[in-house]
Each structure stands twice: as C-alpha cells, then as structure tokens.
Write a structure and sequence with these properties.
Helix content is about 40%, strand content about 20%. The protein is an alpha/beta fold.
Length: about 270
C-alpha cells in the first residue's frame, strides 16, 4: 500500500518576526525541523512535501520594491532581484535547519520551475519534485517571485504552489491525503476570538472575506489567502488542518490526521 502524501506549510509568521525585517526565528525553525525529521525518518509514516512562507524576508523586499498584487514589475529589475534574494536567504536558513536535523531536504526554487502570464500561473515543471519524493528525499518549496511575460514578475505564495502541486499530483494518480498549515494562531478564530473547529469549503470561503489578511508586512494575503486555498483544496477532495505551530509536538498528530486543535477545512 502506497504511503500517503501530505503537504505541510511553515507559515512566514511562525518562522520570522514579520514586524522585524529580515528577522528569522532560528530556535523555532530548528525545533520544527527536528519534528519534521522525526516524521521523515519513520518508514511507515507519510511522505512529505514541505513549503514555507517568506515572512519578513521576501514580503518586506517585495513591498519596498512596489511588487504588490497587480503591479507591473518590468521597470523594477532591482526590486525583482532583491526580492528573489531575500526569499532565498530565508529558504537557506530553513533548509540548513532541516539538513542539520537529518530530514534529507531537497530544495526547489519556484522561480526555476514556474512561469506566469499576466498574473496567471502556468503548469509547473514538477517532475523533479515527485522524483525527489520517490527517492525518499524531502522536497522543500517556498514563497517566491517568478517571471511573468507581461508584468515582468509576480509574487507566488506557498498557498498557490500547493494548489498547483496538488493538481499535478492528481494528474500523476497520487492522492494528497491532507494539507497542514502551521501558523502562530490556534486555527481560525470567530468574532469572539474562539477557534472555529471545523469549516466546510463553502464556509471557509465566506470566512476568508471577514478575517484580517495578515500581521506585519504581507503582499499575498495571510490567513484570508490560506482559507481560500484550503477551500479550493477541499473542493478537490483534499482536507486541511490549520494548526498552531508554536505548540511543540503538534506536527506529528496533524500530519497523521489526528485532532490537534486548530481548524479543519473539509469538503462538506
């Protein structure tokens, strides 16, 4: 029986301080890397694809360079280069921690396997990602800037990457068992500040219109984007768990599909 495939995102607010440009939470990243390595090393556990946000690295560089949604970036070559470099800087920190923990990470820069046309992302060149999975490696992707034939470049979030890669997995007859989103809140909260334990895809879409986009500097949408992406994945039959990644030991049960608090987004 094939081992299930799980996508997991380390949120930018979890691994950086989004109020402090270029500030990585090294201790948190190392702890998360150790927890991920324990899952990867379990031969009976699921296969993982990990993504992470760009936090106060790529988001700050993009905002300072005017690379906001809908913007034309062709006149902003310096900003494009700076944003790619900033996103890659955080990625190297995450990959180094995963390597140090023994998780066998294999890095994939979205700017090298994806292009865009007037803001519409094309199909990814994802073969090597699935080859890495088949080889027993841990593919790691991240929020990045990719070239766009009309606008020059656009920002691509990990949420968008997961949707594209889930479609590609389905085309390859691979089922994504679930997506785990690790952030700095215990799931999605209602107007009273209480965690909403379960949302259908339709409910997640409605909730996305009401939540605050993101804390700190963010050019993609924060929790609102996460909910819209979780809703789209749920409509395709892939449930999501939005979990507090600050809690030590939360990763393994969330990956296994056990209740860990937070918010579950399910098809119906």
């Amino acid at each position: 029986m094939a081992r299930p495939l799980v996508f997991l995102k380390l949120g930018g607010s979890l691994i950086t301080d989004k109020a402090r440009p270029g500030f990585a939470r090294h201790a948190a990243i190392r702890r998360l890397a150790r927890e991920l390595a324990a899952v990867v090393k379990n031969p009976r556990g699921p296969r993982l694809l990990v993504g992470h946000g760009s936090g106060s690295f790529g988001h700050v560089a993009a905002a300072r360079g005017g690379l906001i949604p809908g913007a034309h970036a062709k006149p902003s070559l310096d900003a494009i280069a700076r944003t790619q470099r900033a996103a890659a800087d955080l990625h190297q920190i995450v990959v180094a921690a995963l390597h140090g923990a023994g998780a066998r990470p294999f890095s994939f820069a979205p700017s090298s396997f994806l292009c865009s046309a007037n803001g519409r992302l094309g199909a990814p060149f994802a073969g090597p990602i699935f080859d890495a999975l088949d080889s027993g490696l841990l593919p790691v992707v991240y929020g990045d800037i990719v070239l766009d034939e009309r606008r020059g470049a656009v920002i691509v979030s990990t949420e968008e990457l997961f949707q594209l890669l889930a479609k590609d997995a389905a085309r390859r007859k691979l089922d994504v068992a679930r997506v785990v989103w690790l952030g700095e809140t215990d799931g999605v909260r209602n107007g009273s500040g209480r965690t909403i334990p379960r949302l259908t895809a339709a409910e997640a879409k409605r909730t996305a219109r009401r939540v605050i986009g993101a804390s700190g500097i963010d050019v993609t949408g924060g929790m609102a984007l996460r909910l819209r992406s979780a809703a789209a994945l749920a409509e395709a039959g892939v449930p999501s768990a939005i979990v507090d990644g600050r809690k030590a030991g939360a990763i393994a049960p969330a990956i296994a599909g056990r209740e860990t608090g937070g918010t579950l987004v399910h098809p119906r």
